[in-house]
Design goal:
The protein is built from seven helices and six strands; from the N terminus they run H-E-H-E-H-H-H-E-E-H-E-E-H. The chain is α+β, with helices and mostly antiparallel strands. The strands form two sheets. A four-stranded mixed sheet has the order 1-5-6-2. A two-stranded antiparallel ribbon has the order 3-4. The longest helix is centred in the C-terminal third of the chain and has 24 residues. The radius of gyration is 18 Å and the shape is elongated.
C-alpha cells in the first residue's frame, strides 16, 4: 500500500480537524469500539473481551477482519457519513481533497478513488467513523433484534471479535455481516 505523505501544513490542519471531529463523534461511538480512540487501546479491548467471555454465556467465537479495509473505504459513503454530523461544507470539501489526494508513483501523481491515505493523521478517525456507520450501529441493532442468547462484541479498528451463546446465531450473524459489509464495498478476510 503506497504511503500518503502529507505536507507539514496538511498534517497540522488534519490534526486540528481530527480534534474537532473526535469531540463530535466520541459521544456517538459505541462502548465496544476500541482502537485509535483516546484511552481505549488494545489492552482495554482485550480486557473487555476477557470479561465478556468470562461473565456471559459465550460458546461460539467469531473473529472477523475486514480485507484491505483502509484501502477499500468508499469516498462517497465516507463523505455521506460525515455529513450526518458535520454541516460545514468547507470541512467536507477539505476531507474530500485529502481522500482524493493520492500518491506519487514513478514521478507521476496517481489520484485515489478509494481508501484513506496510509500514514495520514486523519485516517484512523475516518476509519472509525466509517465503521461506526457501516458496522457498529448495525451490529448493535442486530444484537437487539435477532439474538435470543448472549452476544458480546469488541471491535479494534477493522478487527472484531464477537461471542455468541448459540451456534446458529453466530452463523446467521456472519452471513448478515458479510451482506452488510458488501453494501459498503467491504468484505471479510476469509
Amino acid at each position: 500500500r503506497p504511503l500518503g505523505i502529507a505536507a507539514l501544513e496538511d498534517k497540522i490542519v488534519q490534526q486540528a480537524v481530527s480534534t474537532v471531529l473526535s469531540s463530535i463523534y466520541e459521544q456517538d461511538f459505541l462502548g465496544f469500539s476500541y482502537g485509535f480512540r483516546q484511552g481505549r487501546g488494545q489492552h482495554d479491548a482485550l480486557d473487555a473481551l476477557s470479561i465478556g467471555i468470562m461473565s456471559r454465556r459465550v460458546n461460539w467465537i467469531l473473529d472477523a477482519d475486514i480485507r484491505s479495509f483502509f484501502d477499500e473505504i468508499d469516498h462517497e459513503w465516507m463523505l455521506r457519513f460525515l455529513s450526518h454530523r458535520v454541516a460545514d461544507r468547507r470541512m467536507i470539501r477539505l476531507i474530500r481533497k485529502w481522500l482524493k489526494a493520492g500518491t506519487i508513483e514513478d514521478g507521476r501523481r496517481v489520484a485515489s478513488t478509494r481508501g484513506t491515505p496510509q500514514g495520514s493523521v486523519i485516517s484512523p478517525l475516518l476509519a472509525n467513523i466509517y465503521l461506526h456507520y457501516t458496522l457498529d450501529l448495525w451490529t448493535q441493532q442486530w444484537r437487539n433484534r435477532h439474538a435470543a442468547g448472549d452476544v458480546i462484541i469488541v471491535r479494534y479498528a477493522d478487527d472484531s471479535v464477537m461471542g455468541f451463546q448459540y451456534e446458529g446465531e453466530a452463523r446467521r450473524f456472519l452471513a448478515a455481516m458479510r451482506e452488510r459489509l458488501a453494501k459498503f464495498g467491504l468484505e471479510l478476510h476469509p
